[in-house]
């Protein structure tokens, strides 16, 4: 006898009436016991009611796995009421992780072959929700037959099921190619929307399908033109736009079909212009269609005038009151700035206005776009706007803004004086947020501009006298005062206001820096060295400087103490050499694009080879520690020591006839390229250690946005030994800035074919990217 239990409605009311969680659990446990007893007794008439209650319990988060087999029994039942609850239970309680889901394959196949539309709909919904790869392979032919059924209800559900099958098993694409061409003639918008989605999935997963459906581009153009020119329809129009969902789907499909295909792009150019000019953007539906149109224009081989129109549409989006639309416009313009720079430049004032948006995400995206728009013609105006923004921007944007201004000034500075003034203003406004190399870059810039030494030291002295809290500014000012303090006291600079400075004032200011609690150890080191250099540049007595230096001989900071002790020794024992030792620094040649690339590469190779020779005795231990594949092969031997006799080196140095031939050059290899980011490998095999291979990894960025937080990691098989050197940086400036380099040392004692696995992680266009790939096409010279 079946124990009486509650009806579904009564169960819901009792659960909702529970005042505590304990009462709710008590009600559910009691009812689950009744449901279990009913399932054990095998009551066929009330099984679907018991399962319906169990599904409600499952929706509340309580365990209901014991109802899985009851779902199978209800699906196999001939009654529609049982099948409806059984299929619903299968969708909720079964998935690919349970083997029980395979048991309903035969039931679904039987229901699909029936002529009852409601039953076929239930089976198709269940298959599209939880169908595994095995089920999709077994039932693909049945679904294909239903795609051409007379009933629009069944056809629509069959199309959606086919989409699920293609996503699960892409190799089934050949089965669904023929029906799709016929379904494009449908007038039912639901079926047409599903068909466009199915074709999109096919084209994304199969090159053959992509080639096949390029023939239907004229038909797709005709469907979209009909939608655009059709008037208001109660059934399909949303905010005055005729079926925007179908329009967006068609535009996405056209974007895929027209990418890198001239003929297809030419066919859809006129239509895209018509959609771009006739779509109403007063509502979100129209804006969505228009944005999808812009993306399509950007991706296909569209006409230049059409691309300008797309940029102008995005410019109008920047004036929209909706923040989401403005953000989408800024992101899209940032992607277009490299290919259509002049067109995007027309909207520069609007982009600059977006910098003052209170929304943090909008202002960050506007900052990235503003930095990408800087060029040699507008660098003065754009830098002024960015510096104004830097003074009032949120703290989390100051580092990006300051770094962007410094990079732009380095690339497009019209004069050295303007470059120095720009960096000084950035250091004064947000010195603590600048990159670590800002101090070195400015000191190199000032050192190389001999005609601006007096101007620079006066500007820096004035800035230091006003504020000593910005540590990078204090470091540059201390260095400059130490180098050119004599020019500061002369007062003969015509480019600045007259400034009379006494020796005592300069020394007092540097002592203030040394004693300030805000000064970092590195800053105190700069100030102490500046005082020491002023001892040879000032006309007065150097006893005050000597006293200050001697005080720091007992400083707790080891670096500062060492400097002070050495300077004291210089005063006491080598005073006659002090003037020569502390003379002005020679001009430093600036690195980067001004250095010839080939000379730099050859110099790096020579330095790397020299470093290898000096570190050979401990190379084996280092390589063992740094092996990335969890252990090394037992037969890997340490590299053989080089011949210690000087004769070989002398013959090699003088290039005498008896010298061994140099190792053959190995061609460079490009292994990665995406959205302007490129990764190139160059190879060197030292002649003295043929088992050792040096790989210089060079990353460059030609896109319109910086690549930040760049990390390159490598792994090799266990028979190799790998050592990674520290990279030169983690930021790749936009539009061909300084590259990031990293040296890999690979020991291959067995001369086995080399395989290299690389993992790249970085941030680009505001998104975090991770790429893992294997390099199998390395030149044979790298291992033979």
Automatic annotation (TrEMBL):
Chain intervals with Low complexity compositional bias: 645-657
Membrane topology label: Peripheral membrane protein
Gene Ontology process terms (BP): intracellular protein transport; vesicle-mediated transport
Compartments it resides in: Cytoplasmic vesicle membrane; Endomembrane system; Golgi apparatus
Signal peptide as annotated in the record: none
Domain of life, per lineage: Eukaryota
GO CC, alphabetical: AP-1 adaptor complex
Keyword Protein transport: yes
Biased composition (Basic and acidic residues): 597-606
Similarity field: Belongs to the adaptor complexes large subunit family.
Protein name: AP-1 complex subunit gamma
Organism: Puma concolor (Mountain lion)
This protein's encoding gene: AP1G2
